[in-house]
């Protein structure tokens, strides 16, 4: 699942349960990504930077550092159960 995120705040919370792959923990209803991503989606990369081994804090810093970019390409993996 490829999502093109606009500049600015995204209104989502990333967590790394048990030190695993970063997952979407929460999404604000006001988020520009609200209808595109779901709680439980795994964040695989941001602008071709592999995030699968990063902590939630490092992922958040990576996303924030790129907040002024015209766009951010984020790749998520959704469980086939959904």
What features would you highlight for this structure?
mainly beta, four-stranded antiparallel β-sheet, 82 residues, two-stranded antiparallel ribbon
Notes on the structure:
With 82 residues, this protein is mainly beta. The protein is 12% helix and 32% strand. The protein has one helix at residues 56-65, and strands spanning 2-5, 12-15, 23-27, 42-46, 49-50, 72-77. The strands form 2 sheets. Strands 1-6-4-5 form a 4-stranded antiparallel sheet, with no helix packed on it. The longest helix is centred in the last third of the chain and has 10 residues, at 56-65. The two termini are 13 Å apart. The mean pLDDT is 94.
- Quick one: overall form? globular
Average the pLDDT over all residues and give the rounded result: 94
What about the largest sheet? 4 strands, antiparallel
Cα end-to-end separation: 13 Å
Radius of gyration: 11 Å
Quickly give the structural class: mainly beta
Specify the number of helices.
Answer: 1
**How much beta, percentage-wise?**
25-35%
Give a short summary of the structure.
The protein is mainly beta.
Lay out the secondary structure.
Elements: E1 2-5, E2 12-15, E3 23-27, E4 42-46, E5 49-50, H1 56-65, E6 72-77
Antiparallel strand pairs: 1-6, 2-3, 4-5, 4-6
């Amino acid at each position: 699942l490829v999502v093109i995120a606009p500049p600015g705040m995204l209104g989502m919370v990333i967590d790394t349960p048990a030190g695993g792959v970063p997952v979407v923990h929460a999404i604000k209803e006001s988020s520009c990504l609200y209808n595109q991503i779901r709680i439980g989606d795994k964040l695989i990369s941001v602008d071709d930077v592999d995030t699968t081994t990063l902590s939630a804090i490092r992922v958040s810093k990576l996303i924030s550092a790129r907040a002024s970019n015209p766009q951010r390409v984020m790749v998520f993996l959704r469980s086939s159960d959904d």
